[in-house]
Specification:
Layout lengths: L10 H16 L3 E2 L8 E3 L5 E5 L5 E8 L2 E8 L4 E5 L6 E10 L3 E18 L1 H4 L8 H7 L4 E5 L8 H8 L4 E2 L10 H14 L3 E7 L11 H4 L6 H11 L4 H28 L5 H8 L18 H10 L6 E5 L11 H16 L5 E4 L14 H15 L3 E4 L16 H15 L5 H4 L3 E8 L2 E7 L5 E3 L9 E7 L5 E9 L2 E5 L8 E4 L10 E3 L8 E2 L22
Parallel strand pairs: 2-8, 8-11, 8-12, 9-11, 12-13, 13-14
Antiparallel strand pairs: 1-3, 3-6, 4-5, 4-7, 7-8, 9-10, 15-16, 16-20, 17-22, 18-19, 18-21, 19-20, 21-23
Helix pairs in contact: 5-13, 11-12
Length: 556
């Protein structure tokens, strides 16, 4: 643990200001905003209903459902109350009333009981249904039993924060109401609802361009000297600035950014293919994400406090998560950061919920070299899936777009998260259908590398090629000198044999070790792609320095 005096700074005053504002706003009776008409409660579990109130008051929650009427009470302690309901079976038409003694009450109707998942991460989870490939058709033709709650996006607890939060509510699917829903989350929920025959509730809790550190507590970051850099950098940047100065600085940035965006849209209308550098030369430098201070939502811990804590501990089945792009500047640290984030969320909910997360797809900007730093993020994600209990990875290596960090086809994302859930969480799909074959080991035999697989299921198949021999692209081999050359793989029994004329004595192997693979050939018969792999971390690989300008803002 890092000594407190090394990290303490003006941020402590800012945190206290947040807390004081919260206490002032929450002292009166309040049910958390995530409860509203049309909300979805998790079936088969004791659902937690929670909010704030006057110290010592007794809160009563009364629920009328197919099981009859149940009534639960809790006393307000530290201005917070939590009631735990008896488990209910899947149904619709539930009614709930929350009483603050004999003073006030809140009544919620058309509540469904079904399956509830939280959709977390950055812009590829945030990416809206209306903007995805085929999104318009989904909005016009779908009739899903899916409901959605969007946690308000406001990174600073001022009066506007609580006013906006009070205006949030669950929404039903409709051509207009569902436009801004998470496309990936919706596609997952639609399939899950159809498979289980119940209402699926999705809680959107995501923000484009965010590091995993934004979704973690300060204390969790400070437990390790490496991850502490996220917090220490933030403190160092603001140690000599008052809260008022930080707010003024950020508001000035917001005004600049709004004007810059409007100018950029005008330029894009006239020159849709203008380069990022040329655009900035024409209208000025893009300053996103602005000064990382107490007002900026991208500060470490900011959205843990202002979004995640606002919906916790809402009773869930699990989490869906799509993130990692914004930590590519520190890819070696990502395994430690991400695994601790999962633990932090489990501590917040008080439950070891399953985490289904997306391995980053292929991506490279046209003007960038292949830094290969996303290779390390993907490797870290796979290692997290092996080391963290009930953390499951959905492979998306073939689902990226060249020169666009936001792939518009989200069908593979929703489909693969769904198959992961059905296999690993609900146990209603066989592993041969839901698990992707992955390289397990490599045996070097002269010029050949013999590759074996785990979760092989019904076997492997090669796509994107013609001919009986079916060469598999994406492999590289190296000898003792650790210089890698392109290699060709071919199916052999239940595995793959890889060779290269340039490597007479193979010692190291890589597969799809690139930020953006132009072609992905190797799949399971179940249609899931084999994820990237390298046989050794001592293969002399070092990710290139990601020092160029951001080519495309990582928000949507």
């Amino acid at each position: 643990m890092i000594e407190e005096e090394k990290v303490i700074g003006y941020d402590e005053k800012v945190n206290k200001a947040f807390f004081d504002i919260g206490r002032r706003k929450m002292a009166k009776f309040k049910v958390a905003a995530v409860f509203s008409d049309h909300c979805v409660l998790q079936q088969g579990k004791p659902c937690k209903i929670f909010g704030w109130g006057e110290e010592g008051r007794v809160i009563t929650v009364e629920v009328e459902s197919a099981e009859g009427k149940q009534q639960k009470v809790a006393e307000v302690k530290d201005e917070r109350w939590v009631v735990s309901l008896n488990p209910m079976k899947a149904q619709i038409g539930v009614r709930m009333t929350v009483f603050d003694g004999d003073r006030e009450n809140r009544t919620y109707t058309d509540i469904a009981v079904g399956e509830v998942w939280l959709c977390g991460g950055q812009s590829n989870m945030e990416f809206e249904l209306q903007n995805m490939t085929g999104g318009k058709e989904h909005l016009e033709k779908d009739h899903p039993n899916v409901r959605f709650y969007y946690t308000q996006k406001n990174g600073y607890m001022d009066d506007k924060f609580f006013q906006d939060e009070g205006n949030t509510s669950w929404s039903l699917f409709g051509p207009e109401d569902a436009k801004a829903w998470s496309a990936a989350g919706y596609l997952f929920g639609k399939k899950l609802s159809e498979a289980l025959g119940v209402t699926v509730g999705l809680i959107g809790c995501n923000w484009g361009g965010t590091s995993a550190s934004v979704w973690m507590r300060k204390e969790a970051l400070l437990e390790d000297k490496e991850t502490a850099i996220y917090w220490n950098e933030y403190v160092e940047k603001n140690k000599d600035k008052s809260e008022e100065e930080q707010i003024k600085e950020y508001l000035e940035y917001e005004a600049y950014d709004k004007a810059w965006f409007e100018k950029s849209q005008e330029v894009y209308k006239q020159q849709p293919n203008i380069s990022w550098d040329a655009l900035q030369e024409k209208i000025g430098k893009n300053l996103w994400p602005g000064p990382i201070n107490c007002r900026n939502p991208y500060r470490p811990g900011g959205l843990y406090e202002c979004m995640l804590q606002r919906v916790a501990p809402y009773t869930l089945k699990g989490w869906l998560f799509y993130q990692g792009e914004s930590d590519d500047h520190r890819p070696v640290m990502y395994k430690k950061l991400f695994s601790r984030m999962i633990q932090d969320w489990r501590e917040l909910w008080g439950e070891e919920l399953p985490m289904i997360f997306c391995q980053l797809p292929g991506n490279r900007y046209q003007n960038d070299p292949d830094y290969k730093h996303w290779c390390l993020i993907r490797e870290a994600q796979e290692e997290v899936s092996k080391m963290v209990k009930d953390a499951y990875m959905s492979v998306l290596i073939d689902a990226g777009e060249f020169n666009d960090i936001h792939p518009k086809d989200k069908e593979p994302v929703g489909e693969r998260m769904y198959r992961t859930a059905m296999t690993e969480v609900y146990h209603m799909m066989k592993s041969v259908e839901g698990r992707t074959p992955a390289i397990e080991a490599v045996k070097f035999d002269g010029r050949n590398a013999v590759v074996s697989f785990r979760d092989l299921g019904d076997g492997l198949e090669v796509r994107n090629v013609i001919g009986r021999d079916k060469p598999i692209s994406g492999f590289e081999l190296a000898g003792e000198d650790k210089v890698f050359y392109p290699a060709v793989g071919r199916l052999s029994g239940t595995g793959v044999v890889v060779s290269s004329d340039a490597v007479p004595l193979a010692k190291y192997l890589r597969y799809l070790w690139t930020n953006y693979p132009v072609q992905v050939d190797l799949y399971g018969v179940n249609g899931l792609p084999v994820p990237p792999y390298r046989s050794s971390k001592t293969d002399s690989f070092e990710a290139g320095t990601h020092a160029t300008e951001i080519q495309q803002i990582m928000t949507v």
